[in-house]
Amino acid sequence: MVRNTSNAEELFPSEDEVPMQPETSEKKKKKRSKSIPAASTSGAKKMKGDRVTAAELFGSDTEDDDASASVPAPQPGKLLSYISRRLANGIARQAHPTKSGSHFIELKVYKCNDIEKVSPVNRWRQAIITIKNRTDDDSEAWAHLANFIIATRKEFRTCPPTFVSNYY
Fold first, then answer.
1. Tens digit of pLDDT for each residue in 4-40?
2. From CA 13, how far away is CA 88, in angstroms rounded?
3. What are the two backbone dihedrals, phi and then psi, of residue 153, each rounded to the nearest 5 degrees?
4. Residue boundaries of the structural domains of the chain
5. Which of 16, 35, 92, 103 is deepest in the core (most CB within 10 A)?
């Protein structure tokens, strides 16, 4: 099934998001009776728990929606490599769906003033850049990451370590 991903949660998946609890059928009936009557979904296939978009219900009215419909949705467990950058008018994203490597790196960079008062669950929305990258340990990206880790460890040399036991 091909889905038109139109919101930030689907375009930029994050494991630190709290999963939404599916509504019970009783709650859905109450909401539906208070709002306008439900539209027919005979042309749109909907998986249980998925939110229906206007394009799925009523079709697309722009060429942009048609082009984005050809992008497959990420599969659960698949490690997708991408870079997303916050721009003045939105977010730019470059994905590499077939990138391979023995390690997976996730990096988010924030402006402290932007996130100090934001709930940790919602901080991902404020990231200046987000990188998720599959890479091998002989790549240039890995070498730079190793240098970053070494430099960061130097900054923390004077801090005493705290032991945290395994949670399982």
1. 444 555 555 555 544 444 455 555 444 444 444 444 4
2. 21
3. -60, -35
4. 1-73, 74-157
5. 103
Report how far residue 56's alpha carbon sits from residue 41's, in angstroms, rounded to the nearest whole number: 8
Helix (H, G, I), strand (E, B) or coil at 23: coil
pTM attached to this predicted model: 0.53
The two three-digit tokens of residue 103, written as one number? 């390690």
Please give the Cα distance from 70 to 112 (Å, whole number). 37
What are the tokens at 71? 């992008």
Element (H, E) at 20: none
C-alpha 80/C-alpha 75 separation (Å) is 9
Q: What is the pLDDT of residues 54-113, one digit of tens each?
A: 656 566 655 554 444 455 566 677 889 999 998 888 889 999 999 999 999 999 999 999
Specify whether the backbone of 141 is left (phi greater than 0), alpha (psi in -120 to 50) or beta. Answer: alpha
